Fold this sequence. Notes:
Blueprint: E1 3-8, H1 19-30, E2 35-39, H2 40-47, H3 51-58, H4 63-67, H5 69-73, H6 75-79, H7 96-125, E3 129-135, H8 141-154, E4 159-163, H9 170-178, E5 184-186, H10 193-202, E6 213-217, E7 220-222, H11 241-250, E8 260-262, E9 265-266, H12 269-274, E10 289-290, H13 293-306, E11 311-314, H14 327-334, E12 339-341, E13 343-344, H15 350-359, E14 363-366, H16 373-379, H17 385-398, E15 401-402, E16 406-408, H18 415-424, E17 437-439, E18 442-443, H19 447-450, E19 458-462, H20 474-480, E20 483-487, H21 494-497, H22 499-512, E21 520-526, E22 529-534, E23 543-547, H23 548-556, E24 561-562, H24 563-574, H25 581-593, E25 597-600, E26 603-606
Parallel strand pairs: 1-2, 1-3, 3-4, 4-5, 8-11, 11-12, 13-14, 14-15, 16-17
Antiparallel strand pairs: 5-6, 6-7, 9-10, 18-20, 19-20, 21-22, 22-23, 24-26, 25-26
Helix pairs in contact: 3-7, 14-15, 15-17, 18-22
Amino acid sequence: MKQVLLISMPFASIRYPSPALGLLKSLLKREGIGCEILYLNVFFHAFCRHPGVYEAVADLIIMGEWVFGEVLFGGKWAQTERGGIESLSSPLLPADPELKAIKNGLALLRSMTGPFIRSCMDALEERDFSIVGFTSVYSQQVASLALAQEIKRRWPDRIVAFGGANCEGEMGRAMLRLFPFVDWVFDGEADLSFPKAVKQWVDGRPPEGIPGVAFRHMDKVISQGPGLSPEMDDLPYPDFDDYFSALEKWAPDYRPFAPISLEFSRGCWWGKKSQCIFCGLNCQSLRYRRKSPERAEKEVKTLTDRYRTDRVILTDSILDARFFKTLLPALAEWGGLEELFLEVRANLTREQIRLLRFAGVTHFQPGIESLDTEMLAYMGKGTRLLQNVQLLKWSREFGIYPTWNLLFGFPGENPEAYRRMSLLIPSLMHLCPPMDLSPVLLVRFSPLYENSARWALRNLRAHPGYRSVYPFEADDLDALAYFFEAEYEGKENRYAFIGPLKQQVDFWKHSWSQNTPPQLSFEQLTREKILIHDTRPFQKKQRAELEGDLALAYLACDDMQSFESLVEGIRRLQGDRFCGDLELRRRLDDLVARRLMIREEDTYLSLATRPVQRMGISEEW
């Protein structure tokens, strides 16, 4: 049969391959169906001749959709008030100093979209295909629709299919209704539904009776619910041949640094217990499924060898906790990967972070989100302030870079929490700062969206950025949108009360932009004597010596300790030499006042790190 084409369009980053398309190609091959993946995002990255602008747009929400709006909807739409660049709403764009450069970059990219689509069509002329499938995740939607429209105009008998995060539930049904050149939309996991639909179509039948496939019949949209879930260990290895070929052809400078993208689990085991209120990932199913550790280890080994790379990105929403006893020790035993990126909860132990480092993790994404226990509980994170600070401290110690944001703007949040964070930050200047202080996004499928009445949200509607992208009315925008906005009490004041916190975060980030970040570390001189070195801003003393009971308590509080457990442990060690409960409390609280420790209720945490070089690891920041 004619082969299936799978396409990745802008603005997917070119920094890693699509695990979904790589897996679908392998699934089709297993069924004897020919398949090729076209990484046209990599092609456009080269075509536009401004790779930095491309990647900057890829990291913004909705902006990439605007770029391809003219080629999809026509020049007249692009010249309207809604379709022009001035209509882009400020929440989508960076602060004023960067605004002009970003808008210039967007306009430059838009001017190239027509020639780009024509070049893509020329490339398709050379291929014999009967079905073309687009992956649509976040800002890939309009570019994919623009090419799909041209394909259908030229080859009306060929099937145009869409899948990905932009196709979940109502969004996929709206796509079929509003874009008649789209034939099939895959809702949810397509591992079982897509190959079955292709085989059924080859037999001359529509994709009727296949869960996960929505299609049009007699001008009516037929929805068959979300796709069924496969057994994870039954899935083949993804095929990334086309990605690396695309890099070698269009972006050879990226080839030495390109990772493979692997998926070892789906769903979120923490979300089943307590879904974070802002999280819309995993869409319609939080059910956690995972590959066995044996399969995961074999997959890493096989594919890193096949693609001659020592870099791996795990796309899992949350790391399988079993891997701390299975996969990660195995990777460490190999000598560790050059790069292993993953997402974890922030409640890791010191030993677990050490293991991440030896397995090859240099950057990772912990779910920190806040430095206040009240706000963490409000979000449903299941962690507390001291756990987050612990993680940041041990990450610095082992030379791992955590990428994280501080979120604000929740309906019903307590402004006092942000004042507490602003007062805390001077103590944390030696730890990795957040990438930014960001307003929380209201996204489809999140508890905030699904239970908007509980949070007293009013006038829930598509994010205004969609008005700049689509020439549709409000109801249709609401159906297509993944990002939303709403009114709630106190919303207009949210930027006012975070002012002091923003100043502190900006200074924190500035301190880390210097050649040498601030440090707070200690040397253990004897069993009962430590020397602390402190180069954080705002601190007057550069050195501090702790002896006796206080030194022992400081060492014990490397991980957070209740005062009761501290007293019990030090009394056991010191016997008659113990200074007593009241005196120890006074000394500890003095260290808190000097910002060498932090205290929450009756629990203490030391802030100084152990010297990294003593762990046999070079500090890489």
